[in-house]
Structures are given as C-alpha cells and as structure tokens.
TrEMBL record:
InterPro entries xref list: PurM-like_C_dom, PurM-like_C_sf, PurM-like_N, PurM-like_N_sf, ThiL-like
Upper classification of the organism: Bacteria, Bacillati, Cyanobacteriota, Cyanophyceae, Synechococcales
Pathway: Cofactor biosynthesis; thiamine diphosphate biosynthesis; thiamine diphosphate from thiamine phosphate: step 1/1
Name of the protein described by the UniProt record: Thiamine-monophosphate kinase
Annotated EC: 2.7.4.16
Native species: Cyanobium gracile UHCC 0139
Residue intervals of the PurM-like N-terminal domain: 30-149
Keyword Acetylation among UniProt keywords: no
Protein task: Catalyzes the ATP-dependent phosphorylation of thiamine-monophosphate (TMP) to form thiamine-pyrophosphate (TPP), the active form of vitamin B1.
Residue numbers binding Mg(2+) 3: D31, D84, D233
Length: 339
C-alpha cells in the first residue's frame, strides 16, 4: 500500500508545489514555461523568448460524449493550451503537438472530428499541428503541448509579479461556460431565453483564447510604466485565478462583490454568483496592473472591467471581499482535479 497522502488529499496546488522540487526554482509557478537562453542552449540576441505549455483533457473528467461532440473536444483541447500561452503574454501560437490515447473500439470518425476541431481553432488563432503520438488505453485522452513566442516589445505575464495596490482586471464575463454545462445537462434554468441558452452552450463548447486581450494590454500600456503584469487564465474559475495571483505575489486579493463580471445570461439565476466565481472554463485572463494601466486597458478592451485589488497579505488568507473584508469560502462543488 502507498504511504503518505493521496493525490485527492493533496489537491492540485500542493501536488504542483511538490513536483516543483524536481525542476529549477520557479519553473512550475506560472500557466506555462518561459524558455530562455539558459534552457535552450542559447538563442539569437533579440529573438523573443519561447513559451511552452502542456494540458490534458480526459474523458469523463474534462469532457463527455453527453455534452459535446468530437470536434468540440478537439477545439477545447487546443483552446485550453492556447489560453495558457495568452496568460503568459503570447499573442498567438507557433504550433502544437498532440498525444492521443483511446481504446481500440474508438471510431475513426471521432478521432477525425477531434483533430478537425483542433485544426479549426488553429486556423482562427495561428499555429500548426507539429506532430505527436498515439497509444491505446482504457479511456480517451488528448494531451496537447503548445508552443508560442512572446511578442517583440512586450513582456511576460507572471503570476508572482503583482504588488499591493495593483488593480485586478478581468478581460471578460464569467459564469457563462458553467451555465452552458447546466443547459447541456438539462438542469432547471428558469427565465433563460433560447438565445441565452445557445450562447452559453457555445461558450462551454468553443471557448476562445484571449490573444486579443494581450494585444490590447500591450497597446494600452502608459509610456511612463515599465512592463510589470501579473496574471493567469481563469480556466479553473475566477476566484481560483485571483487566489493564485495573490499567493504567488505574496498578497491578498480582494474582490468587489458589486463589480463581479457576471455574464449577462446569468441574470435571475440563483447560482449566478457561485458560477461566476467558481464555475470555471471561461478562459478569460485575470490581471493585476498598476491603476493607470488598468484604467487604460478597460477603456480599450470591450468587456474588461475592474474587479478588485491586491493588498498586503491578510491573516485570514489570500482571497476576500472588499465589502467588509473577510475571506471568500470555496464551495464544496468547486472543480477539483483529483476528486
């Protein structure tokens, strides 16, 4: 019998912290790996750094045949990786590799559909399929590795670069992907019109990596400010993203309940706040910026809004409300990678 805690007992955050002991210091701290000259054996002067990310979609954990088709699975697998590239400061992808695991009885039509979905997303947002691997297994799985490059004149987005006084900005609304999942599951959703249902389903099945937000971030930077941006994507939920930034930056993140970026489609739904905070899979960016830069970004990027601020670390933890202070508790229904 194995000794010590299980993966479910550790949780994703503690697992990643422990795995980081096998890598250079700080290598596991962000959404993706930033590859500099030391790791690549040298690169031409002025050549922007490369960014590398790997993500896995597992059947019945991250996707189900009951809620999406093969092309949607492929799209989401690629989008999850491209979103992490955007979260590091990339404005597009160089390409990606794909490892496919599937039982032998899997129809070719499913595999063809999944790769077509990936190709469709790449056709819209840059990059090509570079190769990969295939193997048999008990359940279907897509492991995607994406490669990007930081733009010339820009800089990296790092989780740990936030400071007390920074403003937290969300690049878009949250909760609509979780709403789409509820629609697909047939959950009771009073007063949700047909058009809202369609938008929610599309948001869940076909998320869009926010490379446009990274371009707006660079274009809106005040001339007097050096590049310093903390951020990550919100694939695991808005509250989780804000908490990750706070922990990495040794701060506490305070969210404004009155400024939460609730998707309009959530109006009238009892779960609106919980799904906005914890629903996950919205693939927006959550950024910590100096106030002048945050104001300029919100003016330039449609849908972006201030949602709170970073402050000195508080004794009750990394995440709380601006209204009255105090922690934001994680609901028992929040997504966990190991059950």
């Amino acid at each position: 019998m194995p000794e010590g805690p299980t993966l479910a007992q550790l949780g994703e955050g503690e697992l990643i912290r422990r795995l980081g002991a096998f890598a250079p210091p700080g290598q596991f701290d962000d959404d993706a790996a930033l590859l500099g000259a030391a790791l690549l054996g040298g690169r031409p002067a002025g050549d922007p750094p490369l960014v590398l990310n790997t993500d896995v979609l597992v059947e019945d954990v991250h996707f189900s045949a009951a809620t999406m088709g093969a092309a949607d699975v492929g799209w989401r697998a690629a989008a999850a990786n491209l979103s992490d590239l955007a979260a590091m400061g990339c404005r597009g992808a160089v390409g990606l590799t794909v490892a496919l695991v599937a039982p032998g009885h899997t129809p070719w039509a499913w595999v063809e559909g999944a790769y077509a979905g990936m190709a469709e997303l790449l056709g819209s947002h840059g990059g090509v399929l570079l190769g990969g691997d295939c193997s048999g297994g008990r359940q279907r799985l897509l492991a995607v590795t994406a490669l990007g490059r930081l733009p010339a004149g820009g800089g990296p987005i790092r989780r740990g670069d936030g400071r007390p006084g920074d403003v937290l900005v969300s690049t878009g609304a949250h909760g609509i992907s979780r709403l789409g999942l509820a629609v697909l599951r047939g959950e009771a959703l009073p007063d949700l019109p047909a058009a809202g249902r369609e938008r929610a389903i599309r948001a869940h099945r076909r998320p869009v990596p926010r490379f446009d937000a990274v371009a707006a971030l660079g274009a809106s930077r005040p001339a007097a400010l050096d590049w310093r941006v903390a951020g990550c994507d919100s694939s695991d939920g808005l509250a989780t993203a804000a908490s990750c930034l706070a922990v990495a930056s040794r701060c506490t993140a305070l969210l404004s309940r009155s400024d939460l970026p609730l998707a309009a489609e959530l109006a009238g739904q009892a779960q609106a706040e919980d799904w906005c905070l914890w629903g996950g899979e919205d693939f927006e960016l959550v950024l910590a910026l100096e106030p002048a830069w945050a104001e300029a970004l919100v003016e330039q990027l449609e849908g972006a809004r201030w949602i709170g601020r970073l402050v000195e670390p508080q004794p009750w933890g990394p995440l709380g409300w601006t209204e009255g202070g105090g922690p934001i508790a994680s609901p028992t229904a929040a997504f966990r990678h190991f059950g």
